[in-house]
């Protein structure tokens, strides 16, 4: 579809496609509105006000990066970044509602209503002698806080399609690396030597997979080839950064495709090592696929998605395995479940730290699962009142749909939640839970809610 759209944009012009007259490296191609066909209606007013404000003050300013790429693909960008030759202090002085963020490389957030535009000063190469930069022995850039000119700024971006600059005043796109031609051909291509660029920042491997799935672009062979070889480099990336990138990947609306591409390139070992195990079990694979497909459908329909729920699904079959192990070691079901949850979360945290606020939800969803098995007495009523009931119930339905649990349990809960008082009463199963005063007799099958 994207190809078709691009064809329409580029072939509608009588002029030759920009690829034919694009600059050789180092030279800038200036592509006019007639050729690139960007629809101004897709551009946020806040972004235009930001570039105008900077230009009025005598600076250069462009919409840059993913926003330009998306505009060329006729998609409405999620967020807009602006690049300028003004320093953060200068930007901050121009806009009343703005603040400088970041300690090392400082950016400016310019606020218009509830929209925030991120403004960054052109950055130079980490290889420059001047400025604040540091590179690890592996080649990974630890810090590159160097100002530079626009051309240098373009070189340090990742893909050619991400190194495009749009000036809303002239309506021209500045293209330093044949990005427009690559987009036109449906190709995602790394700027410079892919091997070096991945070593500098291994997260670029994840970005390649994510952007190619999200935008329907093919990763260029040279850009793709080193990925499997270098997958292990992800081990050195700070876990919180990996989490941010993975969250973007899973919420892109193309999670299923991205997850299988991650696996195909061996990238999941450093992120969700558990995914391998899970995907190897037919049941686990079914469960994860169902969950990801659900997530994609929700994202594409603009419905909210809970990352806690999503990660709960990705790790569930690992929890199940560990749960069984702890039970076999003689632990009661509920303590065993909690031991399993701790084990899976600890292991995961070593690779990719799931943000606390999401891991709390994840644990709540898991922790409520045994309670769905009790369909007698007062317990089902109190479960319905639990603030996490809805998420835990959706999770239960996935377990049923994947074949892990009999479909009948899910159906029972759907009906119970919707029934009136009398019907609910009639639905309850006979209460076989031992009464409290008989507690000293150790029950054959202890209640899973005993914690
Ligand atoms: P998305 O549409 O998902 O936001 P994006 O390409 O805009 O994709 P951002 O994280 O918003 O991703 O980054 C904005 C821009 O910054 C990119 O388009 C790219 O030019 C540059 N960039 C981001 N991450 C990297 C990186 N790891 N290495 C080099 N350049 C990067
Ligand atoms: Mg972006």
Quick summary of this structure?
The chain is α+β, with helices and mostly antiparallel strands. Helix content is 51%, strand content 11%.
Report on this structure.
The longest helix is centred in the C-terminal third of the chain and has 22 residues, at 307-328. This protein has helices at 2-11, 18-21, 33-36, 45-56, 66-72, 88-94, 150-155, 179-184, 194-200, 203-215, 221-230, 239-250, 255-264, 273-280, 282-300, 307-328, 333-351, 356-368, 379-385, 389-401, 407-418, 421-427, and strands at 29-31, 61-64, 81-84, 98-101, 107-112, 115-121, 132-135, 141-145, 164-167, 172-175, 187-188, 218-219. It folds into two domains: 2-201, Beta Polymerase, domain 2 (2-Layer Sandwich); 238-428, cca-adding enzyme, domain 2 (Orthogonal Bundle). It is α+β, with helices and mostly antiparallel strands and 451 residues long. The protein contains 22 helices and twelve strands. The strands form three sheets. Strands 1-10-9-2-3-6-5-4 form an eight-stranded mixed beta sheet. A two-stranded antiparallel ribbon has the order 7-8. Mean pLDDT is 86; it is low at 1-24 and 447-451. The radius of gyration is 26 Å and the shape is elongated. Helix 20 runs antiparallel to helix 21. The chain binds adenosine-5'-triphosphate (ATP) and magnesium ion. Residues 65-66, 79 line the site of magnesium ion (MG).
């Amino acid at each position: 579809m994207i190809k078709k759209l691009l064809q329409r944009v580029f072939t509608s012009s009588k002029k030759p496609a920009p690829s034919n007259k694009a600059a050789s490296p180092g030279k800038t191609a200036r592509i006019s509105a007639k050729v690139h066909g960007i629809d101004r209606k897709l551009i946020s007013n806040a972004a235009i006000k930001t570039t105008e404000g900077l230009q009025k003050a005598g600076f250069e300013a462009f919409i840059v990066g993913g926003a330009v790429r998306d505009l060329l693909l006729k998609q409405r960008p999620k967020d807009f970044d602006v690049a300028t030759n003004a320093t953060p202090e200068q930007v901050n002085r121009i806009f009343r509602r703005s603040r400088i963020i970041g300690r090392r490389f400082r950016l400016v957030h310019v606020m218009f209503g509830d929209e925030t535009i991120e403004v960054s000063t052109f950055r130079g190469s980490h290889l420059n002698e001047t400025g604040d930069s540091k590179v690890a022995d592996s080649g990974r850039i630890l810090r590159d806080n160097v100002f530079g000119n626009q051309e240098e700024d373009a070189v340090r971006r990742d893909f050619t399609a991400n190194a495009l600059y749009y000036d809303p005043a002239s309506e021209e796109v500045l293209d330093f690396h044949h990005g427009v031609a690559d987009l036109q051909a449906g190709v995602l291509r790394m700027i410079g030597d892919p091997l070096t660029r991945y070593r500098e920042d291994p997260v670029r491997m994840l970005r390649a997979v994510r952007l190619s799935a999200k935008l329907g672009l093919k990763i260029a062979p040279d850009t793709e080839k080193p990925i499997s070889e270098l997958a292990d480099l992800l081990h050195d990336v700070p876990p919180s950064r990996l989490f941010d990138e993975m969250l973007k990947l899973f919420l892109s609306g193309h999670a299923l495709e991205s997850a299988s591409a991650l696996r195909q390139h061996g990238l999941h070992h450093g992120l969700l090592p558990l995914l391998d195990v899970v995907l190897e079990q037919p049941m686990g694979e079914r469960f994860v696929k169902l969950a990801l497909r659900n997530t994609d459908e929700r994202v594409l329909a603009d419905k909210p998605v809970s990352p806690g729920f999503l990660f709960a699904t990705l790790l569930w079959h690992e929890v199940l395995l560990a749960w069984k192990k702890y039970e076999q070691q003689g632990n009661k079901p509920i303590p065993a479940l909690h031991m399993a949850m701790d084990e899976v979360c600890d292991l995961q945290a070593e690779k990719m730290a799931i943000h606390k606020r999401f891991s709390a939800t994840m644990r709540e969803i898991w922790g409520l699962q045994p309670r769905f098995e009790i369909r007698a007495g007062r317990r089902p009523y109190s479960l319905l009142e639990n603030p996490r009931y809805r998420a835990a119930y959706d999770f239960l339905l996935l377990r049923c749909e994947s074949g892990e649990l009999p479909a009948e349990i899910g159906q029972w809960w759907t009906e119970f939640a919707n029934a009136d008082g009398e019907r609910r009463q009639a639905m309850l199963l006979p209460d076989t839970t031992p009464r409290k005063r008989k507690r000293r007799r150790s029950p054959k099958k202890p209640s899973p809610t005993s914690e």
